[in-house]
Amino acid sequence: MKHTKHQSGRVLLGAVLALGLLAASCGSDEEATSGSAATSAAPAASDASATETAVTGTATSDDPAATADPVTVGPAGETATASSEIVLTDAELATVNEGGFTAALLWHTEGAFVTAVSNGVHAVFDKLGIEIVAETSAGFDATKQASDVATVMALDPDIIVTLVVDPDAGAEALEPAVDAGVKLVLLSNVPTGYVHGTDYVGLATDDLAGMGIAAADLLGESLGGSGKVGYIFHDAAYYVTNQRDAAFKARLAQMYPGIEIVAEEGMAAPARAEEIASAMLTTNPEVTGIYTPWSDGPADGVLAALRAADRSDVKLVTMDLSDNASLDLAMGGNVVGIAADEAFELGRTLATEGAYGVLDKETPPFVVVPAIAVTRTNLVEAYERSLDSEPPAAVTEALGG
Amino acid sequence: MSTGGSNARVVVAGFPAATAPASSDSGVIGWGRRVLADVNPNRYVVLIAFLLIFAFFAITQRDHGFLTSTNLINIGRFAAPIAVMAVGMTFALAAAEIDLSLIAVVGLSSLVAAKVVESNGLVIAALAALAVGATIGLVNGMLSVKLRIPSFLVTLGMTGIIGGVARSVNDLKSLPISDEDFQTVFGGKLGPVSSLLVWSAVALALGWVAFAKLRFGRHVLSVGANRPAAKMVGIRTDRVRIGVLLIGSIAAAFAGVMLAARSGVGKHDILADNELLSVIAAVVIGGTSMFGGRASVAGAVVGAVTISMMTNGLTLAGLSVNNQMIARGVIIVAAVAISSREKKEA
After folding, report:
1. Does the ipTM surpass 0.95?
2. What range defines the domain where residue A241 resides?
3. Does B176 contact A282 at a Cβ distance shorter than 8 Å?
4. CA of B91, closest CA in chain A: separation in Å?
5. Taking the model in full, what pTM does it have?
6. Helix axes A239-255, A208-222, angle to 10 degrees
7. Does residue A172 fall inside a structural domain?
8. Quick one: pLDDT at residue B31?
9. How many distinct structural domains can be found in chain A?
């Protein structure tokens, strides 16, 4: 009896191993990384309520046949207005200052980006005499954010600036604020069913398509317009990264026909980027350029893989400024460019739109802040424009400063 | 975890697991019996899994470079931190304890090492990271023993505390490491050999010695097999329980040092949360009982390599992230289930 159990156990082990491995072989047919042009699907579609990146004249932004640049458009296809147009006159500034208004900032998470956006908001509100009565972080938890909304409503703010974690849950959570006449200013995501001018006063985001374009151009130019590239995209239904990744891919296909994406891999956890990049280099040693969806984590892993493989020849481009990628860029390493946003400017825009709200001044339906193509040359300036800070000392030293 | 299983048979480390000195057999006959017991094929589940998976990918992914020396070394490099953690976790599971805070310790220790190395050099940086691990392990152990809280609850709670501290150390950002010596010694190459593999071998050797040669190892197994009985024969079970959590945490801290050196940064999430499953699976597939009283350090290391190889092969195969997660989960759960079942029957 015992012997039988052991035998059946081994048979079961073999069967299950075979099942799991069979899944591997089945999946590889459709999403192979090697040899030929990658065929796997683009990142998940953006949230319907969020702003979208689209290639003019086509439904999707990663169509290689597209002939126009990807552009960032609003939730209902609105044309983007540049953030530089969102300004207050001296008279408006004085009016707001006399109002004694209050505001609450309900962020989706923490980190360098949120800190820079928040600094931008604080700078404007300080100037306008608007008191910030609460500032919260939801840690990407929609339930926590709903709780944050309920908590700050007790403080009766006039303005709420927020990035809603989940458009559906956010619509429900923010309803009391809308009903109470709070001026709602949104970063990137629009709560489901909310209407500009009725439910919220303003919507601003990064020029996500612009960032994708900048990253593609940085890589394309560093490769001299030809070469084989590995494309690591964010494999999650996350609006911001999905749009940036898609725009990068579309721009590369459109503007650099001599560059071929030969390896395409999704990444769900940044901690796995090194393993993914190592496998990519093993399978496709001819790769001379790699794209990663953001720098803090994914680019670190790719840099480690390149270092381990002694591949100083591979050019790496990524998104968002991080200290490690910036240091590598400053030292003339693998990183040849970083596409960054102007997070501080985004905060300034959001706060100014909040002032528009209390002044009952009409806002454009959709505002974007420009992207920055960061190279070694403009790295210091990019830190100031994007994060409202100086680069770390190690970066400055590496630049010879 | 329970307060000790009812396993009457205590088995110690080594690959395959050997019979514990609890046996009254001695001399050549006893040794012979133990050797015969050791060749029981049921203890080779991890090797069977290793060989099956290796053979499968060697055939199907040969054209994708699976068998290249670079890729095989990469499998070892990626397995190394998990292997070190698995050695530490082997002590905890063998004593019928568990440490769920390991991943958080890895993140915090990587940040501590990254912060300290820039001004104090690699030795102080490594020691500082290990000190952090030791402190956390001691707190885990003391809370569990003195307040009589099961270790899984204590370490689960500590995960939040450690994770919160780690997140605030550098405002969630990566902390770059520019000290090349640190990167070489703990995560690069020592001559032609990957230092990650060297440190894994050191962890394996230390773990093996502890279980096979030291009284502490025997006490760990006795406590895991039957804590009340161990107490009755004079074993200081509280010290042992604190000790295993201390060792687990120190091992995790060192894994954090290795990861920081390998990737060139310290970061609070330098290791994904779900790698805790890899660590536990490596230990259990390797021959250690989830319920205490049986341990195999070498098995845990082979288990870690097996899981790393599986991840590598699935990635080379071009599976989507979703399919990788499914395939990996199926294989791990099945291997752990079968491994546990066969040990119960043995």
Report:
1. no
2. 207-342+373-398
3. no
4. 26
5. 0.80
6. 40
7. no
8. 57
9. 1
